[in-house]
Design a protein that fits this description.
seven-stranded mixed β-sheet; alpha/beta; 265 residues; Glycerol-3-phosphate (1)-acyltransferase; 9 helices
Length: 265
């Protein structure tokens, strides 16, 4: 379990943290504004797939720049063999604690990919118009929406593009390193015989607390890429075993890199 005081960090007012948060969020808004003409250009491009790939390359550069100007040291760690240059695509699985995880995803990913995102974001005026064109959307409380997103993700993989999914579905606000995983990403991996690459964002809670966007702090922000999981080892249809193994590996890495997790054994 996580120490209770860690969960409460974002609930106490701190002047430095508030001022820093305003500064960091202001930079995020500036970069979002500068991103707008790129989004328009790529939406109007004739080759939609190439346009979306280029859009995410711009997002990658902007996210890296944001980490620099906000004095957050982004660090990427690879555990195990790195074979991404040889695999056409992966299903990337990441934990989710904070809004900063989105920027970590953008800063971490270089191969062409599409993320799975909440459908409610698509209802935001103007922003939603572009969101629907660059993100596979899902309403996890709606069975029809889940089925459609599953089909859409299969279509992305058929185009030899990777997908990026937060299997917890929303912020993990529990005392545990990870909350419960949905089965969809693992069903997708088994259905399409695509290897899984777990990614662990180990410092999100320290940089931006889930309860308060004005409780940000500078420091290190690490993205740990775990060794890929060979889906052939789980065929045919070992869904529960696959999900449990991915959960266990990610849980172990979170405990390895963070000293505020307490074992409850």
């Amino acid at each position: 379990m996580i120490k209770v005081e860690k969960l409460r960090t974002g609930r106490h007012f701190n002047l430095f943290s508030w001022l820093y948060s305003v500064y960091a969020l202001a930079w995020a808004m500036v970069l979002l504004f500068l991103l707008f003409p790129f989004a328009v250009f790529f939406v109007l491009s004739k080759n939609k797939q190439a346009g979306a790939n280029s859009f995410y390359e711009v997002c990658h550069s902007f996210a890296r720049f944001w980490f620099v100007v906000t004095c957050i040291k982004y660090e990427q760690i690879h555990e195990g063999a790195v074979s991404e240059d040889f695999a056409p695509c992966y299903i990337y699985i990441a934990n989710h604690r904070s809004y900063i995880d989105i920027l970590l995803m953008l800063a971490s990913m270089r191969k062409p990919y599409r993320p799975l995102g909440k459908q409610e974001m698509a209802t935001i005026p103007l922003f939603g118009f572009f969101y629907r064109r660059f993100v596979v959307t899902v309403d996890r409380d709606n069975g029809i929406s889940r089925s459609k997103s599953f089909i859409d993700l299969k279509g992305v993989l058929d185009q030899k593009l990777s997908v990026f999914i937060f299997p917890e579905g929303t912020f993990n606000e529990s005392e545990n390193p990870l909350s419960r995983f949905y089965s969809g990403p693992f069903q997708l991996a088994l259905k399409k015989s695509i290897n899984i690459r777990p990614v662990v964002f180990v410092d999100s809670l320290d940089r931006m607390h889930f309860s308060n966007i004005f409780a940000m702090r500078p420091g290190i922000c690490r993205a740990v890429f775990l060794e890929e999981i060979n889906i052939d080892d789980y065929l045919p249809g070992k869904l529960s075993e696959l999900k449990e193994d991915v959960y266990a590996r990610m849980n172990q890495v979170l405990r390895k890199y963070n000293n505020y997790y307490e074992y409850n054994e």
